[in-house]
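Worked Example 4.2. Consider the chain below.
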Amino acid sequence: MGLFNRFVWFLPLLICLLPLMNNFNGREGVMAFHKVHLNYQTDNTVKVNPAHRTGYHFQPKKNWINDMINWIPLEPAIVPSKPFDKYGCWSGSATILPGDKPVIIYTGIINKKPEPGHQVQNYAIPANYSDPYLRKWIKPDNNPIIKPTHENVSSFRDPTTAWFNNGHWKIIIGSKHDHRGIAYLYRSRDFVKWTKAKHPFHTKRDTGMWECPDFYPVSSRGTDGLDTSALGNGVKYVFKASLDMTRYDYYTIGKYDLIKDKYVPDNTSVDGWAGLRYDYGNFYASKTFFDPVKKRRILLGWANESSTRNEDMAKGWAGIHADVDVIFTIQSLDKAESYDEKWAKFPPEDIAKTICGIRGATIQGGVGPFGFLTLASTMLREYTPVFFRVFKTADKKHKVLLCSDATPSSLNENEYKPSFGGFVDVDLAKKKLSLRSLIDHSIVESFAEGGKTVISSRVYPTLAIAGNAHLYVFNNGSETITIETPMYYKGFYHLFYQYNPKGAVWGNIVWAHSVSKDMVNWVHLEPAIEPSEPFDKYGCWSGSATVYPGDKPVLYYTGIIKEKPAPGYQVQAYAIPANHSDPYLRKWIKPADNPIIKPTSENVSAFRDPTTAWYNNGHWKFVVGSRHNHRGIAYLYRSRDLITWVKAKHPFHSKKDTGMWECPDFYPVSSRGTHGLDTSALGNHVKYVFKNSLEVTRYEYYTLGRYDLVKDRYIPDNSSVDGWGGLRYDYGNFYASKSFYDPIQKRRIVWGWANESSTSEEDIAKGWAGIQLIPRKVWLDHSGKQLLQWPICELEKLRCQKTQLHNVKVHKGEIIEIKEITAVQADIDVIFSFSSLDKAEWYEEEWGEFPQHDLGKSICGVRGATVQGGLGPFGFLTLASHKLEEYTPVFFRIFKIADNKHKVLLCSDATPSSLNEKEYKPSFGGFVDVDLTEKKLSLRSLIDHSVVESFAEGGKTAITSRVYPTLAVSKNVHLHVFNNGLETITIKRLNAWSMNTAYMN
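Applying the procedure from the previous section yields the following structure tokens:
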């Protein structure tokens, strides 16, 4: 069985090209002007020096590059060929116009004089819009579309992505007048005729030429990105310029005056050399774009070389793209060294860099320097330190400095080896600092405090290359520093799961244990816990892991001390590692003071599955699932010492007529973005999730609500239905899930379990039963009414063979096979569109009589894929045999309800999945809360031999089906898109991949 993936989709469009060449002047630094080195341009490199060749940053096979996003190298999109770009095709941007029409606007050089060339603005369009690779581009004859007027003709370049408002498309072009940096605004109604605005969009004196300007909106209400044309009350704007004088990028945050068409920086945002930077190191000519699939703003930066031109020729390439985590805990800030008032005399734009230069990693301090020694040789003759240093200011506050120092990086004296630095705006109340570094042969990219400060360094070691490069954590301060990575212990994810080592049926349950670096490839270890003591003699049942301060993991679990009353007399126990220095945590000890919690008035046979603990008000707390008669209950327990636990006077939460609550889960989610929160997190912008697995239905339900800290109780929102009719993570074969906070990726992960739909005899014949489903990232939808979930991004590494479709019509009764992939182990993602909602069938009133907790499932059962509708059914036929004797359809059906509104239903129907009549073949269904204004629906399915996981509308609704075909197995599996509705459906965009098999020993 193969376990696989998720994908990230990007439209493969050129974003920005920067034609810079290096001009090294002695050892004073790299001066990358727009100077055309004709004597070097055609000197092709025959052999590439691999020593510093990056391993996972994109760059073509050889020669000079500055390509931003093309992962599959194609032929050049634009080359000098016309009078309007005879001497160069320089930077620009791509804009996708309505109707999926991409246009590139770029700077052309029409004359070599005055240096670096007479500049105009041109555009190019695809020769074939149906080609997803956009391999050929046309330069229309009406170029150039913009010529310089009063601007400096040799300083008029790098048009931005266009945005639309007030009936016009608008772009910015970078320029200068004397020493004043300028961004000129141009408007157009047709994208061909452009008119210059009467006043500059933005300008700042003494900043010189503004290269590669960028302008885009950002949301003040979360981490989602915004389309470049977005407007609204919760929107701020970013203006970025790459200063030719300093070779750094600077940005400000401000407002966009729509009436005057001008950008106005906020009073708190410093404009110019002393302003904010994306990156305080070797980072220039950046460009952003909006990714509509993931709803995020992406920044791509460029790191130029620090070598001479001759060394670039010897290496065979120049320029790369650059994109690694530890939490450091500081025992005390008392030893922080004083911030020297003399440093205020340093140039403001380089003050941090200068301090890093004079207070390097070898200069002992108080709190710091501490961090990494990257790309280090064996005897530390070469290394690139990335480190924090904490200073105490006159007003008893603290300043945190991040440094990345190339000075000791190489024994080559000809290399440019600068020290870079940037201050980190962080609250040290918790005495913690996080640092992540990406190390890739000749580049080190470092991110402090979740990306507040970033520094990129290009380095060229002579000894610390290939297998001779080492990585160290160091501390050269007098204060002790602790490395802390909760829930991600010493570099590994740990998965503990209920397992029968003796057979494929329930019984002999132990805590099996596997570890992984990426949650994709797994190494199985010996069981962590198995029955061995009086308090767990008859079973070690479910529980949770908690990592306490000081990197101390503890497992809480349910022990079975008697077989009667069935299913067993239940207590709560704990286990701790035998050796905390073992990153695999292979051996666990059950202390003699177990059990730590015994049932009191609870049902002794219904008292199990303790949650991860959280901390507030001086106590650690967790919840245990239970029931009283038919009322489901979550009991709260508190402890100050993690050993003596006291039951709260009232339940944490309960609900009548829901039966036993198994595997409860409680955690916070942010209302301001997709990032996850530590289980103990509190705050104004935090909501809470309470989930339970109902033994009576074998489904999971969750609510959103608030946590009453005074009463220590959970209260669901009024809009969140509690009980059988509530929300689910998954409307299919999904149970006993568990979430955890991943501090490395700052996300909340949910693990689900899919049990078998076979008989016990068939499970024994197969030799296995039950699987862990793909780990899913979960976060709060912007509506605040439900969670969204999506397979973790690490799974994309298993993608291989890919096929695509664009703008393909699927008419009534039509089936289109998706070929060129391995359909038995695949990932398919599609956006469907339709021209009208008029043919949607009416939602039947009689369906109101179906059980509410199974309403979607019931409708999918009576309106399956073979029942023709108006708008739908349309979707996938997965795990299909050659003649469709077997298949598992995953599909949408759209219904019309009163007030001209619509309901969208997602179905995953196992009924036709197998010719084996003994199999349990249910139809599953769930409604999708979606706005159909744009007449589009997205669907992604992960297909893996006997399981199909499907996600509608970016994770609003998910359904998992277990199926066991008899014909559609191995190479005999097919995958189709189908439409059995009257309304024609368009496959707007489809990506499908074969998936490699993950490693599991």
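Residues 326-484 form a domain with the Jelly Rolls fold (CATH 2.60.120.560). The two ends are 13 Å apart (CA to CA). Compare this with Example 4.1 before moving on.
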